[in-house]
Design goal:
The protein has 170 residues and is mainly α. The chain has 8 helices and no strands. α1 packs antiparallel against α3, α4 crosses α5 and α4 packs antiparallel against α6.
């Protein structure tokens, strides 16, 4: 709830900055996924190992998000702030988890659809992914990414690592 007489700030360019930052991450990941290495990513070639456009995009995204989250924390109680953050994060997380586990999982499982539902740990993954975002949404018997990218191969949705950062900040 907003204090009477206090006008909430409006930052029209933050959405554009966040869109550009997210695009930087997608661009950077395209090299890793298509070439199985990020060595040819332009920023990494220019600046060296570990300094890629995706990492910079994540930093920009989190910084701008911090500018947007901070004013919302200034109004009302801590409980109201946490409730608003949960309403912003968890509905999309639940939808993403359900689609990944129950729609995409069976299609990308070498076990086939019936084998996936009979032998996979999809229920455990669903519960863990929603209740504990640090879980990382690993789904046994599903291979979304190339096994040559070993650190990414076990994740059902690798981009969900950021949820643990978002929820730990609240």
């Amino acid at each position: 709830m907003q204090e009477p007489g206090v006008r909430k700030s409006f930052y029209p360019n933050f959405n554009m900055i966040r869109l550009v930052a997210a695009s930087m991450v997608i661009f950077s990941h395209a090299f890793l996924i298509s070439e199985k290495t990020s060595a040819n990513e332009p920023f990494m070639r220019l600046l060296g190992e570990g300094k890629n456009l995706g990492k910079f995009g994540v930093y920009v995204f989190f910084i701008t998000s911090g500018f947007l989250v901070t004013p919302s924390a200034q109004f009302g109680s801590v409980g109201a702030f946490l409730w608003r953050r949960a309403l912003r994060i968890y509905p999309a997380l639940v939808v993403c988890t359900l689609l990944s586990v129950y729609a995409l999982g069976p299609l990308f499982s070498p076990l086939g659809i019936s084998g996936y539902f009979l032998s996979s740990l999809h229920l455990r993954t669903t519960v863990y992914s929603v209740l504990n975002p640090n879980y990382g949404m690993e789904l046994p018997n599903v291979q979304f990414y190339d096994p040559a990218i070993s650190w990414l191969a076990t994740f059902t949705n690798g981009s969900l690592w950021t949820i643990s950062q978002e929820t730990s900040a609240t």
